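Usage

Read records sequentially. Each one opens with the input sequence:
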Amino acid sequence: MKKTLAVLAAALALPALALAQKPVTKTESVEIKGTIEAIDHTSREVSIKDDKGVVDSYYIGPEAKRFNELKVGDKVTARYYTTIAFQLRKAGTPAPAAVADDVKVVPGKGPKPGGTISQQKSATVVVKAVDTKTPSITVLTDENKTVTFKVEDPKNLKDVKVGDKIDVTYTEAFMVTVN
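and closes with the structure output:
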């Protein structure tokens, strides 16, 4: 998925895997607060220094109509949300209807720049490895990418096997407020 903000591909925690056809959902959020240290208007990158002194750079897509209003020294709060809904399905069982890529941009209404961008996607992945000690699961996406996710409860891995297909529908949202 092309990310509008290349930010916090934080460990997505898969809460439960069950062989039943009942979907399971988990929401994770990460918040960063910081100060804009640098702005590259050509590449649309903003460098933000957090309260621990760590500086990270973020790409701000053209959807952010008020990008030019950002200033070095602005205090920002950013929240990144992910929701994963997934279920296992037996091999040969038809996949559920695909969720269309749905990107939504909602500009902030305040006097300073801000807003929310979100996207929903659906994918079928194949389990490549299960680690009950960590606990984690490694999957292969349809783009042939290998991704490992931490699993909240190791008991949820007991019936998961290499080769199982998992249908995943997930939503990512990024909200930025300039204080």
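Summary fields computed downstream for this record:
- Residues 1-21 have pLDDT under 50 and may be disordered.
- Residues 13-178 form one domain.
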